[in-house]
Amino acid sequence: MAEDLSIVKGTKAEQYHSLIPQIKALLTGEPDLIANLANITAALKEQFSWLWVGFYLVKNDELVLAPFQGPVACTRIKKGRGVCGAAWQQEQTLIVPDVEKFPGHIACSSLSKSEIVVPIFHQNIVIAILDVDSINFNEFDETDKQYLEEIVSLIVW
Of 119, 113, 111, which is closest to residue 77 (Cα–Cα)? Predict the structure, then answer.
């Protein structure tokens, strides 16, 4: 596939419906995990223009920064700390409409106002998370949860 995205405007669902087949095409035939994570972050950032999109991988009982797009980020996060650590600990997607109201929020960027964190499972164990931040309050909802969970399920570990 050509490494160009077709950016679609419309509802969130319409945007995801257009983007997911393109992400599948980017991943098809590419066995390298880091390359695939990098392309997923770039595709999501391009389509939605969010502040920050990236992955953290579980390594030695910490989340360690992996491919991302956006401002510099926290490099390591302990289990249970911030939204990322909480999603890892709780093993569920967390949607935070206002990060300032989240107990223990880690402010990697003062521009971030809302966040969604999607845990990624392999053999029923969280091995990574997808983290997305927005400059807008209440940016993320159940539509994002549904489609971002679908996108991370495409990753071959």
Answer: 119
